[in-house]
Specification:
With 493 residues, the chain is an alpha/beta fold. It has 15 helices and 25 strands.
Length: 493
């Protein structure tokens, strides 16, 4: 299907507008002067606030009447990857001959042919790493375009297209394409296009942070996930590079398949990585570390970075970005200053309040590795506080029993743990369902203080009763969690 040119678009309708990337794209189009409408089942903060501020017309729920209610027929309908083939609104658009596409395909065909695409991919760390890269490039006056699946605390929006970045001069008389930072999601594109989103992103450089099993609703096993990333590595365009984290054996194996130069990084001192982060220190909430290059003939560190964000996972994320900026030839003093000013991403170790001296942190972590590393990072940044963790099994994978035992080890540094009953499991076979009760039982057997709650209101009440001044409450969920944090803060005030 022939898509209209971006410059000719006047109206766009988005089905599934509440997703982070979809919402960011909708907001960008609205800022560009294109009238945008969209529908979704549930839109929660921070994306609901972003869409409202942008002036996007929202419809609650999916139905054909949404399209019929529009004053004019939209020039383009963008259908999100959460939309099923039997969705009545999508079905109406397709059957009535509307011009439609997925968001990744729209990016590929409307934007990415003209840019140097820096794709950040991996099971963990995509949002923080791509946000950090975009922030550093922006602070270094490179004016990058970017498309990020989260709400940055530093960038004014999650989607930005630099009009001046297409074919501008960057060094001497050499003309090069503007940088486009893209968060490369391995989840599938759309119900009619069952390939990873990053297959559409035309990568020049790829940062590959990690590869583990995830998205159990669309991938059968780790081998299937690896095959998806093999496709990304194979798509790196000539002249590009792969920046790969050697702390993951799967990433090491993928790097061997690359047809472009590979720059490896990690924390292990076993010779698997060229660049390593060493001498990590956390002082007064700041994380600092030294960078070593095995090819540096002089020995000793080649640079040192300081960050406001904490945890080994964020040290690795920062190291990957540092390598990318080094390869782009940016001034390292400006790069170091940009790292220090980076505040992070909303819902990634985000401080939501401190009522009665109790610090409340909001985090998106849901995979057991992410849960473990996030909690370790919080422990290192706030060592004197009792750590209370509240976890909602909400993602497609966490609601399945594939990681049932792994979660038993993910909460090791927590002092007290509350686990909610899983989000809607009605579409998951009984024998495949994750059990919150079994997790609580395992935690108790290991000597951990753990509790189960069936409703958000009950959980909020229980946590408020036990919380005391000086505590840190970390609330982990990749969804709205029925307003758990807002209710918690209100009750504690």
């Amino acid at each position: 299907m022939q898509l209209p040119e971006l410059s000719s678009l006047k109206t766009v309708h988005i089905i599934g507008v509440g997703g982070t990337l979809m919402g960011a794209f909708a907001s960008y189009l609205q800022r560009r002067g294109i009238r945008v409408s969209g529908s979704d089942q549930n839109v929660y903060p921070p994306m609901s606030d972003v869409l409202k501020a942008a002036g996007v017309q929202l419809f609650n729920g999916y139905k054909s009447e949404n399209l019929q209610a529009l004053a004019v027929r939209p020039d383009l309908v963008v259908i999100g990857n959460v939309i099923r083939a039997d969705n009545p609104e999508a079905r109406f658009a397709i059957d009535r001959g509307y011009v439609y596409t997925s968001l990744p395909e729209a990016m590929e065909r409307l934007l990415l042919l003209k840019t140097r695409n820096l794709v950040v991919a991996g099971t963990h760390g995509k949002t923080t790493t791509s946000s950090l890269l975009a922030h550093v490039l922006t602070e270094c006056r490179q004016d990058p375009s970017y498309f990020i699946g989260g709400v940055s605390q530093d960038l004014p929006q999650s989607f930005y297209l630099s009009e001046s970045g297409f074919g501008v001069e960057r060094s001497g008389s050499e003309r090069s394409r503007g940088y486009f930072v893209l968060e490369g999601d391995e989840y599938d594109t759309a119900f009619w296009d069952k390939v990873p989103k990053f297959n559409h992103y035309l990568p020049d450089d790829v940062i590959l942070t990690s590869v583990e099993f995830d998205h159990a609703d669309i991938y059968a096993d780790l081998a299937a996930v690896v095959r998806a990333f093999e496709g990304l590595v194979a798509r790196i365009r000539p002249g590009g590079r792969l920046i790969s984290c050697s702390d993951y054996s799967t990433v090491q194996e993928l790097a061997l398949q690359a047809k472009v130069p590979v720059l490896s990084y990690g924390t292990r001192l076993d010779g698997s990585a060229r660049f390593t982060a060493q001498n990590v220190k956390v002082i007064d909430g700041w994380t600092s570390f030294e960078i070593f290059d095995s090819e540096n003939q002089r020995g000793g560190p080649v640079d040192e970075l300081s960050l406001q964000i904490s945890g080994t996972h964020n040290v690795l994320n920062a190291l990957a970005v540092w390598i990318q900026t080094r390869e782009l030839g940016l001034d390292q003093r400006a790069v170091s200053a940009a790292f220090r000013s980076f505040r992070g991403v909303k819902r990634r170790q985000e401080v939501r309040g401190e009522p009665q001296g109790v610090l409340v942190i909001d985090d998106f972590a849901h995979h057991p590795t992410a849960v473990r590393e996030t909690l370790r990072g919080l422990r290192s940044k706030y060592p004197g506080r009792r750590l209370i963790t509240v976890f909602e099994p909400r993602s497609a994978t966490s609601r399945r029993k594939v990681f049932q035992k792994d979660y038993g080890e993910a909460f090791e540094v927590s002092d007290l743990v509350w686990i909610s009953s899983p989000f809607d499991q009605s579409r998951i076979a009984l024998e495949d369902q994750f059990s919150s009760q079994a997790l609580v039982d395992d935690l108790i057997k290991s000597g951990k203080s753990a509790n189960l709650f069936q409703s958000v209101d009950a959980g909020v009440s229980e946590v408020v009763k036990i919380a005391r001044k000086g505590d840190l409450i970390a609330v982990l969920s990749n969804g709205g969690f029925d307003g758990f944090i807002s209710k918690l803060l209100k009750l504690m005030e």
